[in-house]
């Protein structure tokens, strides 16, 4: 019987062959399965992945991640084939903002600038003035004149964190959130901290304020990864558990403790874990499922992403 490991090795070998045949590149988010990150040409957070999608030299982009990420790649590279191995890999945060409701809100509030987190559908981006990620949200908001009213979409937690840091009063927040980040347990985190004195708490700004006020460092997955280069040895990580793979790989001698969820639930984004080596292999074999976007929607969404990417 073939062991799981050699099966994975065979799949990884076949993926490498198919990549060469198809002139394909694999982009994977940090939250995907470790074996998926291993076969990727590039691994990163949302900002890095969208920048990469805009500049790759390949006929096919396979996006190991969730739908909004693959849509962003297609918006930026319309002439390329963009594959999303598991078409129903979604995002609770992106689902928390509906494009029709946003369009209605805009009609009722003329003159308000819409800043959308990249965790939104392509249709929401088409109604957006400028996108942002957790890496550059502060910079994006600070680039907008202080007297310009803003609607921040869709993450109320990231929005309220940015509002607090900038002291900006004219910023309305959409009532959305990521169900994974929303559900970390503040009491459980306080207990884990007290049991591990001196440990540094690293938190993603998609967490709510009761978590963020206990954090030593607040930042995007890339920011949190970078922070681990410091001399500290032990960390509590309050974000999706997939990032621990990268942290542990870069620092095998350090200790990373996942933060507890309410009711002892797991801190995995199930949608990110839907992408497997099998689904990648099949997508490259069949050049499907493809991401297709209606051209008028793509064009409208493109400006909001390019405005973000071009912000220095
Ligand atoms: S962790 Fe949250 S924000 Fe990230 S893809 Fe999963 S549901 Fe969306």
- Gross morphology is globular
> From the coordinates shown, what is the CATH architecture of the largest domain?
3-Layer(aba) Sandwich
In DSSP terms (H or I, runs of 4 or more residues), the helix count works out at 16
What's the level 1 CATH class of the largest domain? Answer: Alpha Beta
The CATH fourth-level homologous superfamily of the largest domain: NadA-like
H/E order of the elements? HEHEHEHEHHEHEHEHEHHEHEHEHEHH
Strand order of the largest sheet: 2-1-3-4
Ligand species: iron/sulfur cluster
Number of strands: 12
CATH topology term of the largest domain? Rossmann fold
Measured between the Cα atoms of the first and last residue, the distance is 54 Å
Would you write up a description of this structure?
This protein is an alpha/beta fold. It has helices at residues 4-22, 34-39, 46-55, 67-76, 92-95, 99-108, 122-125, 137-142, 156-166, 179-182, 186-195, 209-212, 221-227, 243-250, 277-286, 295-309; strands spanning 24-29, 42-44, 60-64, 81-83, 113-117, 130-132, 150-153, 171-173, 200-203, 217-218, 234-238, 255-258. It folds into three domains: 4-90 and 272-292, 3-Layer(aba) Sandwich (Rossmann fold); 93-178 and 301-309, NadA-like (Rossmann fold, 3-Layer(aba) Sandwich); 184-264, NadA-like (Rossmann fold), CATH 3.40.50.10800. The chain contains 16 helices and twelve strands. The strands form three sheets. A four-stranded parallel beta sheet has the order 2-1-3-4, with helices on both faces. A four-stranded parallel beta sheet has the order 6-5-7-8. The chain has a four-stranded parallel beta sheet with strand order 10-9-11-12, covered by helices on one side. Helix 7 (122-125) links the parallel strand 5 (113-117) and strand 6. Helix 1 runs parallel beside helix 15, helix 3 (46-55) packs parallel to helix 4 and helix 4 packs across helix 16. The structure holds iron/sulfur cluster (SF4). Iron/sulfur cluster binds at residues 31, 66, 91-93, 119, 178, 180-181, 240, 269, 271-272.
